[in-house]
Design brief:
Layout lengths: L9 E5 L15 H6 L1 H7 L3 E4 L27 H13 L3 E6 L9 H8 L5 H4 L3 E2 L19 E3 L5 E3 L15 H15 L4 E4 L33 H13 L6 E4 L6 H6 L8 E2 L2 H5 L4 H14 L4 E3 L8 H8 L4 H14 L3 E5 L20 H5 L40 H4 L1 H4 L6 H15 L8 E2 L6 E6 L2 E6 L5 E2 L5 E5 L7 E2 L3 E6 L5
Parallel strand pairs: 1-2, 1-11, 2-3, 3-7, 7-8, 8-9, 10-11
Antiparallel strand pairs: 4-6, 5-6, 12-13, 13-14, 14-18, 15-17, 16-18
Bound molecules: 1-deoxynojirimycin.
1-deoxynojirimycin (NOJ) binds next to loops.
Amino acid sequence: MAFPWWRDAIVYEIYVRSFADASGDGVGDLAGVRSRLGYLAGLGVDAIWLTPFYPSPMADGGYDVADYRGVDPLFGDLADFDALVSDAHERGLRVIVDIVPNHSSAEHPWFRRALDAPPGSPERDRYLFATGSGDAPPNNWRSTFGGPAWSRLPGGEWYLHLFAPEQPDFNWRDPDVPAEFLDVLRFWLDRGVDGFRIDVANGLFKAAGLPDAPPDEQGFKAESPIWGRPEVHEVYREWRKVLDSYRGDRVAVGEVWTDSVTDLARYVRPDELHQTFNFPWLLAPWSATALRKVIDDTLRIVPAPTWVLSNHDVVRHRTRYDETDPGAGLPRARAAMLTTLALPGSAYLYQGDELGLPEILDLPDEVRQDPVFTRTGGEIKGRDGCRVPLPWSGTTEPYGFAPEGVRPWLPQPAEWAELSVRRQEGDPGSTLEFHRAAIALRRELRGSLPTEIIWLDAPADVLMFTRGPLTCVLNCGDRAVPLPPHHSLLIASGPLPGEALPPDTAAWLSPPPPH
Ligand code: NOJ
């Protein structure tokens, strides 16, 4: 049986605000994405995932949605969206959109009506309002962005927001909420989207009675009063029915941060979501043992695996790898990507990964926009450093991200000049050309790659596995290791002097060495 397209797809995450600005207001937009589809098709990815572009006061970069069926004027309009989908499809690129069901914006008409309505009213029942005791909130839950997860209204009631106060949590036990989201899914499916990325997919239901969480269980846990409640799975069974009722293979990928792979697997049972992001891969330290454990756990438990190294919420992997071993970030990032692309399943790339962009750590405080920064009083710098607008061309800001003379919403550093698409294009040693070559090779091999891997004997700091005609070797150690004999080299993530694989380097070989 042929696999559905998403099973081994390369999905490119577009953080729309920071990808390409066609309108000239310093913020990326849908027309900007549309103008760069040729670049994405040339990169060889199969699909794009667009982060939220819906009408929003932008308290959390658009993850505070005020209207689930529209486009914020900042990003364009529905006609721009339709044109983007149609052009993408023409180029063979699928389109996944972000759906944010855990919370809305405080500016959503439902929440505005709830604020105007009395306690106990049907309008308030769509969100999680509760009474506290005295001046204390209803329970001890903390917001993921810092501070309490409750805000108090002048009338005395409190409302829950697991994120910013501008993002009130829905009450999924109120029948209006599930009904609304089924309709929203249909709205975008009817417009031709190929799937959804589901924000905070494990958060929708909270334990009945909203009990205190054990103090050490505020983080993302498999089971807690806040995360991973069993009721959430019924929602995804309903969503799956809707997706399956459309032609083509429409996909749903869930954002599930959890401390347990077994928990992760619950979301991808045959009648639920198709995929969840594999965050353990992103969290693993640079160690052959740690990486191998994630691969083994994933392939053992997850039926349709994904592999993720970066996204718009985490420090870019080049910089993460640099933190433990300064200078090693870029070679490790390239080696990790080559290993990622060798694994069975789909790979989610974050915009700029292919350019080897680092995290921008020294953004001035006054330009930071992430609510994490303000809600922690600056103690946590937040996620702006991985959201700096992309460098396309040129040697000064806005580096082709926006029309000349326009200031991007976050300042771009001088080092963007060396990292731009134009600068790297055609240079065989560049990170961009390396990604293009690796992706092209994966496409070529696609039909012949089995879904299993076989581990081969290798020194302690080295990973070596085969997948049919492909062998992947990754050296996480600090000295070069000989490559197995009788192979030909398909591609390497860095220079290969002689027949040895240097530290922080990966290679694909063919045919596999005998084992
Ligand atoms: C996860 C999103 O990726 C992140 O950017 C956002 O802040 C939270 N969910 C809340 O919606």
